[in-house]
Amino acid sequence: MSEEYGDGDPGAPGDYAERVLDTVDLIPAGRVMTYGDVAEWLQEGGPRQVGRVLALYGSSVPWWRVVRADGVLLPGHELRALDQYRAEGTPLRLAGPAAEGHVPRLDMRRARWDGRDPARGAAGAGAGAEGGDGDG
Known about the structure:
136 residues, disordered C terminus, mainly alpha, 5 helices, globular
């Protein structure tokens, strides 16, 4: 394992992992960022690196606020995430009858956070991510 994730101790995230976790902590309740948005915000790494950090250390942050770009809920974690989305009022799109298990998707147009609304999170930190509309 490289130092960017940790120094070989799974209980000790490295510098990059700490920055990913700090960014996830900034995402307001009821909003989401994609894995790629987080990497863009940090101006380092990519979606897979962000996903790896969350897989290793994400239990200490609101992991459900980092999602796939298509709004599909994380396989294996759908029900736990869905409970969080409903509690936070995260915009969802109802699943059609053809959808497997009828699990809703996130309404990415309304839920995606670009990081630029200081009233809802980090005041001016990071570069922001494309695609968010900045309103709640």
